[in-house]
Amino acid sequence: MSRDIHVKICGLSTAETLASAVAFGARYVGFVFFAKSPRNVALPLAATLAASVPEGVCKVALTVNADDVTLDHLIDTVPLDMLQLHGAEDPDRVAQIRTRFGLPVMKAVGVAHESDLPALLDYQQVADQILVDAKPPRHAELPGGNGLAFDWRLIAGRRWPVPWMLAGGLTPNNVGEAIAMTGARQVDVSSGVESAPGVKDSSQIRTFLAATSAYAI
Ligand SMILES: O=C(O)c1ccccc1N[C@@H]1O[C@H](COP(=O)(O)O)[C@@H](O)[C@H]1O
């Protein structure tokens, strides 16, 4: 049996592109709950979209420094399988969210330099997965989703005891090289499969997933 690369398509906000992501083989679909993002999705729409996702595809909610009241409301409204924490949540807060809400948690950690790598270790005891993403530029509006890649050589050959996913500036054109260089078995893309900020493109989603299929082992 071959082991596919697991792909997460993040920032989905229409029934059509969500269905494309599922049909072309995404293992994770992500919904963004962050008002400043062009991919932000209102809770009622997210609830409808999430309800259409078949068993076996992981429905991920991306939040940024969300408080308990916000998370309570989110989890009560939208059927979810995982929380992606993409803010400055420290390990204690990640552990608290995981315990309180009873959902697996994926913590995003930004990487730009070698000195950013130890932070990945801080979350191994408290997160179910780690998302290794590009660190946002200093004055960026968004803590992710900037279409920015980091130097993949920084993590070439590195392994962590928890499952991890590579993110940041991935596109249909570069995802193969990113997998080959880092050994990632899971990849996450948002802006790299869009025709404009926040506008997902079914054809690019298909091409992205096809580009990863050569790396099944
Ligand atoms: O996509 C967003 O708008 C977003 C907003 C706030 C935090 C994270 C966000 N996106 C996540 O960032 C990474 C990389 O995205 P990209 O492929 O470089 O556009 C990915 O995990 C997105 O889910």
From TrEMBL:
Annotated pathway: Amino-acid biosynthesis; L-tryptophan biosynthesis; L-tryptophan from chorismate: step 3/5
N-(5'phosphoribosyl) anthranilate isomerase (PRAI) domain segment(s): 7-209
Pfam family, one: PRAI
InterPro entries: Aldolase_TIM (IPR013785), PRAI_dom (IPR001240), RibuloseP-bd_barrel (IPR011060), TrpF_fam (IPR044643)
Reaction catalyzed: N-(5-phospho-beta-D-ribosyl)anthranilate = 1-(2-carboxyphenylamino)-1-deoxy-D-ribulose 5-phosphate
EC number: 5.3.1.24
Alphabetically ordered keywords of this record: Amino-acid biosynthesis, Aromatic amino acid biosynthesis, Isomerase, Tryptophan biosynthesis
Coiled-coil ranges from the UniProt annotation: none
Any one GO molecular-function label of the UniProt entry: phosphoribosylanthranilate isomerase activity
Alphabetized Gene3D superfamilies for the sequence: Aldolase class I (3.20.20.70)
Entry similarity comment: Belongs to the TrpF family.
Identification of the protein by name: N-(5'-phosphoribosyl)anthranilate isomerase
